[in-house]
Amino acid sequence: MSITLDPWGYAAIEDYEKLLEEFGIKPVKDMISLYSLDHHFFARNVIFGHRDFDTWLEKLKAKDNVAVLTGFMPSGSPHLGTAMVYEELKYFQQKGAYVKIAIADAEAYAVRREDRGDLIKRGVEFIAHAIAWGVNPEKAEFYFQTNMTSSYYRLIQMFSRKVTEAEMRAIYGDVSPAKIMAALTQAADILHLQLEEYGGFKYVLVPVGIDQDPHLRLTRDIADRFENELGLKRPSSIYHKLLRGLDGNKMSKSRPEYAIHLDDPIELAEKKLMNALTGGRATAEEQRKLGGEPLKCMIFELYMYHLVRDDNELRDIYSECVNGKILCGECKRRAISKLRELMITHSENYNEVINQVEKYVKKPSF
Amino acid sequence: MSITLDPWGYAAIEDYEKLLEEFGIKPVKDMISLYSLDHHFFARNVIFGHRDFDTWLEKLKAKDNVAVLTGFMPSGSPHLGTAMVYEELKYFQQKGAYVKIAIADAEAYAVRREDRGDLIKRGVEFIAHAIAWGVNPEKAEFYFQTNMTSSYYRLIQMFSRKVTEAEMRAIYGDVSPAKIMAALTQAADILHLQLEEYGGFKYVLVPVGIDQDPHLRLTRDIADRFENELGLKRPSSIYHKLLRGLDGNKMSKSRPEYAIHLDDPIELAEKKLMNALTGGRATAEEQRKLGGEPLKCMIFELYMYHLVRDDNELRDIYSECVNGKILCGECKRRAISKLRELMITHSENYNEVINQVEKYVKKPSF
Question: CA B177 to CA B164: how far, in whole Å?
């Protein structure tokens, strides 16, 4: 059997294309060569959609004021899905963008009902992991939502005036005070970088998983409503596919055995990977005959997203699999070896960073 | 006809007593001699009810940390109703309490949809009027809600977690984002004074018109819910009756001709007063025979609240009226003379203060 499927196409692509149509998100494909987007997330269609990314890239090219902003909910510990955002931040930072990272401690406290002490500790860890992954702390800024200055909060309060109950209900399903605060706070995270008080107007790009688009839609509407009053402009955004759990389902905190966390002991990570869902056939014989199904395989997904940077190597792995030249056990051992390397490096970096991280972020006092 | 009615009793007292029963507000009467409350608002039952005022007075007596906090919505300009709060602040300040005054600019912007520039200007004017009325700016602190530091906003965000949609709907009738923000911001106004970041725990008294009690009830519930986590305690509060408009109805911005504003030109104020509803009879003859009805008279209400401080003088006026010895025209001229004196003094003070007030409060930057 020869290669007929484009491994860059990805199994669940139909679902994502539906999203493009339904919400007016544009495909990113056309822009890859136009703007020399040389990250494998683009080439492999992991980052598959955007809003106004072209505007932002033009400003980046013109060395205008551009920034990348993202937020992390300091809940649990970062996993390989979180690392996709770290990877994007690192990439745009290298391209010359200023990076700002929010720790969504206000939201975690209010919506997820986490203990304040725990989530402040975790917020610091999320930052240390970002730096360990390669985000340059000298060219980035980190903050806790609850530690911001008054101009930021003034935005939240102003935004509350131009958002209706019906709108909140349509986007979030409920209008509890906690949800409303969280939503308006996210909008302030994204838009505060345009204020004079925070260094003057910047074109802001928000790289997120596609599940976060509702927040972006609300934020764009808010920006429109405050364009005259505050000079706010719509943010740009790019959307990546969600790295699935090792069982092939959406990752979930209630099934930690199917997600590889950056702070997992290496043996645990290996064990999780050995139990991953693959695209293997019922028997070895059958697999040698029919070949495996890499697009159904969580190991292949890990190769695509994180473990194999070289496109030729990825193509070879794909080919070996669909031609039945390699079985799942061997392939998993190969993946484990790559994962081990990645995690050992990361862990070494992390241990170096964690004791210095507090010089890069002020912890909230309560 | 002899005096049988107690002028301190006040016409609408039945309504207020219903409030006492329904909401568990306690009458303030019993405490007047116990704590030597020597302001005519107490003696005349204008301040008629309270929650935990006794606790606060004990702390005041013990020279423990006590504070009085109130907020002004910088909408329109202050009138003689607003001045009741100024009067209370001045009184408790003289008794040794620390005074803090919030300008509710966030709320005015979000709920009343006022222009930001206008309301910042008006906020400054509300403060100048407070100082002109006698609040000592050296022993008080003034702030705009949108100008606070992060600990205050952290409270708002934390509060959002422990307030439900149903609860907000029950208290405020709607759950628009603006209303929710405004309600939680008011709670932070009242409770932030207990935080380490704002000088450490203080017993807080909130003097308000009775219509503000729903906010106090919510704030007390919030304090209970954060007692363990943040060490918050319920605020104390005292309630005054609402000074009615000169037509006998609740004051309203849509009928400015029935409210005397502190910045009214004196001729306008006089004209408004001449048109006030009185307790006069149909004819002069009838009034001489039956006497007037001071408890139905807005001029008498002004005497009670603001224009006559001396109890004997007030009693004489009452007596003259009910005995038909004075008619409304003459009585109004007497009131005008007193009002003129009050307003000229206030206006002189105000003109002195307005140019210096910005040294006592930082204006928001947008």
Answer: 13
Chain B touched by A243 (CB under 8 Å): no
- B residues 14-73 closer than 8 Å to A (CB): none
In angstroms, rounded to a whole number, what is the distance separating the alpha carbons of residues B81 and B316? 24
**A178: chain B residues, CB-CB within 8 Å:** 160-161, 163
Residue A210's pLDDT is: 87
Contact between A215 and A188 (Cβ < 8 Å) = no
pLDDT confidence of residue A151: 93
> pLDDT tens-digit profile of A195-240?
999 999 999 999 999 888 889 999 999 999 999 999 999 999 999 9
Count Cβ–Cβ pairs < 8 Å, chain A vs chain B.
126
Q: Answer yes or no: do A157 and B230 touch at CB < 8 A.
A: no
Residue A121: phi and psi, rounded to 5, are: -60, -45
Last residue of a domain, one of A195, A222, A246: A246
Domain that holds residue B309: 256-349
Cross-chain CB nearest to A365 (options B151, B164, B181)? B151
Please answer yes or no on whether A147 and B150 come within 8 Å at the CB atom.
yes
* ipTM for the predicted complex: 0.87
Q: CA of B181 to nearest chain A CA: how many angstroms apart?
A: 7
Q: Given the structure tokens 């985000």, which residue do they identify? A: A135
Same domain flag for B101 and B166: yes
Map residue B356 onto helix, strand or coil: coil
